[in-house]
Amino acid sequence: MEPITLIAGATRIGFCVDDDDRLRQVGFGPDLDTGTLVFAPWLYPLAYPTYGEDPFAAPALRVTNADGTPITRLVCTGHDRGHHDGGEIIAFSLRDEVAPLTVRIALRSWTDTGVIEQWVEVVNDQAGPITLHEVAAATPLLAGTAPHLDHFRGDWGAEFTPLHDRLTPGAKVLEARATTRPAHEVPPYVCYRPDGDVDETTGRVLAASLAWGGNLRIAFETARHGGVRAWFGHLPTGADYTLDPGVTFTTPTVLWAWSDAGRRPLTQRLHRWVRAHALRDGDRDRPVVVNNWEATGFDFDADRLDRFCRETAEVGGEVFLLDDGWFGSEFPRDDDTQGLGDWAPDRRKLPDGLAGVGASAAAAGVRFGVWVEPEMVNPRSVLYRDHLDWVVAVPGRERREERNQLQLDLCRPDVADHVVGVLDGVLTPDIGADYVKWDANRMVTEPGSTALAADRQGNWPVDVVHATWAVMDRVVAAHPDTELLLCASGGGRMDLGTLSRFHDVWLSDNTDPVDRVRMQWHAAEFLPVAALAAHVTRWGQRPVAFACAVAMSARFGFDLNRDVLDDDEWAVCRRATAAYRRLRPIIQRGDLVRLVSPEHGPGAALAFVDDDRTEAVVFAYRLPDRDTDRDPVPDTLRIVGLDRVRRYEVTTIDLGADDPSTPECHTGAELADVGIPWHPIGACTAAIHHLTAASD
Ligand code: GLA
Q: Could you report the per-residue pLDDT of 302-355, keeping only the tens digit for each?
């Protein structure tokens, strides 16, 4: 018998069906044998172990049937194979042996980028409601001689802090439980290394991501008979979902990408896939955005914003983004204690409303962007006074506040309409905004909804994510040309599902460039830098040229008060913007090549190389020393990833001077094997090198 396989480059998965019609996983990884099965089918592990079938496995599926019976045993009734634009789709149909219950396990391959997505659908064919306790999107069994998991802490200000665990007997469980800023609990991006060691160009590694903007569970558990069973899904422990007859429950997708040649090709393929299939307009240049939040906070008026628009143009920025504090009349939003929800402009600050600021932006020749936090409300607001029943709450219980606010319940159709209307209100033609920062600054503490019956309250954490996405989809459909920046107290939301409605993400409120070098480095293991908003601020009080060079290696912008800069520093900002705009296509769409990792040392270097390796931009950073550092700063910077036989002109861009350095010429081989001198010597210095292939 031959396995049923789905292959996308090194990402290969195989299945078979045994004599008892059980669906089994033949293998998952770069060395899957697509030939004849080596063993009898029943010897392979179950592809989707259920509660009641394998007593030793964490169940992929646990259901209480309408008659109260607690077990499920799935038989495979067949599979369909088809094509989509980027590859193949396989869908296995399964049903329970006894209770009317249909399960579909679907997989979709993307052959150009070596990605496979998987998701599961459960259909209740029973006469009454059933309870879903566990429904994994995927639970593959992974081989491993020295299994390791790479994952991240996501806390506010410390997004993408890397963690590397050797998987020992037992389970490693990552759960997000507070619904609205899940990536602050668990950024849904992990890597599994079956053999331990992996570097940029050697070793086997699996990247995985759950495309879900809410509660989730990602677990890796050593299996009784060897290997590691992974579990990806959106029902964390104890989150039961009641499924009515005839209704289908669909899990989010899990994205898989294997590499058998280290991390670099994996990252490059992930970036291409995310740009092509997740991010909106992934191949369009991201603008240079100038935001006022760090500069003014809530304290501004129309004149200050008019000046901000002119400064945006002067520095070379393309969008002026007005942040929090522009709204609220009866409860003016002068701080975060009130006004949220009342989206009419504060006429004391803005006598001509948003249209006045839009006019300032237009006069300065820049685009206009507006911050909103449409899912939230301060109790001190007209909206709350008028609609006490619109918030997420449990009757008879205290409504606890976080940042003085409550969350609106998007499961209510009237609230969903209202929130769509908030966006329509800031995107009217007379205002002229075409850029929105969509924020969400609290988690859920009392998950209760007036939209759901008393016996369906447990469904809310899942339903609200679909409801939120539906609202976002309506906004996208109504305003297709508006660019959307995703924010949730920094990077509290950055899953591929939510991001697919957005152009980029505000990675973190922490904009200290020293922290940002490492944060952007790790975020860019999965997300293309075009999606990572990075603004120059005064966080950490680092040299402005260094802050600019760090932000330039991602989606560049400013959040800076001109008044605190001297003329030289302002000139640095202007040069940085000009250089960024010139080099933007390579930075935002080039292949990322990691050269020197800052994880364990104060040196960092990365390159972006264009498709045909004729042009590259290299950033090198010298960070302050830390007691924990063990890697030295290199003497030379070796630049790999270029064409070894071509000659490259290397220019060093000095943000402190108008003229670039005199170009030096080296072959790709010299750059890779010998390198160039390491430029950034003192702490908080940077070097930017532009490489162009000499025409032969
Ligand atoms: C959040 C965001 C910030 C800023 C403030 C405004 O904290 O992460 O960037 O927009 O809200 O209140």
A: 999 999 999 999 999 999 999 999 999 999 999 999 999 999 999 999 999 999
- Residue 48 per-residue DSSP state: S
Residue 623 has pLDDT above 80, yes or no: yes
| Non-local CB neighbours of 610 within 8 Å, separated by 6+ positions | 585, 586, 589, 590, 591, 616
Residue 235's pLDDT band, with cuts at 50, 70 and 90, is confident
Q: Would you say residue 660 has pLDDT above 80? A: no
Read off φ and ψ for residue 218, nearest 5 degrees: -125, 120
Closest-CA residue to 152 (of 194, 114, 198, 188): 188
Is residue 443's pLDDT more than 80? Answer: yes
**Nearest residue CA, atom 2 of ligand 1?**
489
Out of 180, 337, 439, mutate this one to test ligand 1's pocket (max ligand atoms within 8 Å of CB): namely 439
For all residues of the chain together, what is the average pLDDT? 97
Would you say residue 1 has pLDDT above 90?
A: no
CA 514 to chain centre: 21
User: Which residues approach ligand 1 with their CB closer than 6 A?
Assistant: 293, 323-324, 371, 439, 441, 487, 489-490, 506, 509
For the question of whether the overall pTM of this predicted structure is more than 0.90, the answer is yes
DSSP code of residue 54: -
CA-to-CA dists, residue 358 to 319, 368, 485, angstroms: 11, 6, 18
Cα–Cα distance list, 449 to 391, 411, 415, 446 (Å): 8, 7, 12, 9
Take atom 8 of ligand 1 and give the residue whose Cα is closest: 489
Rounded CA separation 587/585 (Å): 6
Asked if 461 contacts 446 with a C-beta cutoff of 8 angstroms, the reply is: no
Hey, whose CA ends up nearest to atom 12 of ligand 1?
324
According to the CATH classification, is domain 4-277 in 2.70.98.60?
yes
Looking at the DSSP bridge assignments, the partners of residue 488 are: 491
> How many whole angstroms from 683 Cα to the centroid of ligand 1?
29
Residue ranges of the chain that CATH labels 2.70.98.60: 4-277
Domain 289-509 has CATH 3.20.20.70: yes
The enclosing H or E element of 289 equals strand 289-291
Ligand 1 centroid–CA 391 distance in Å is 21
Mutate which of 322, 323, 334, 340 for ligand 1 pocket (most atoms within 8 A of beta carbon): 323
Query: What residue ranges of the chain are covered by domains with CATH 3.20.20.70?
Result: 289-509
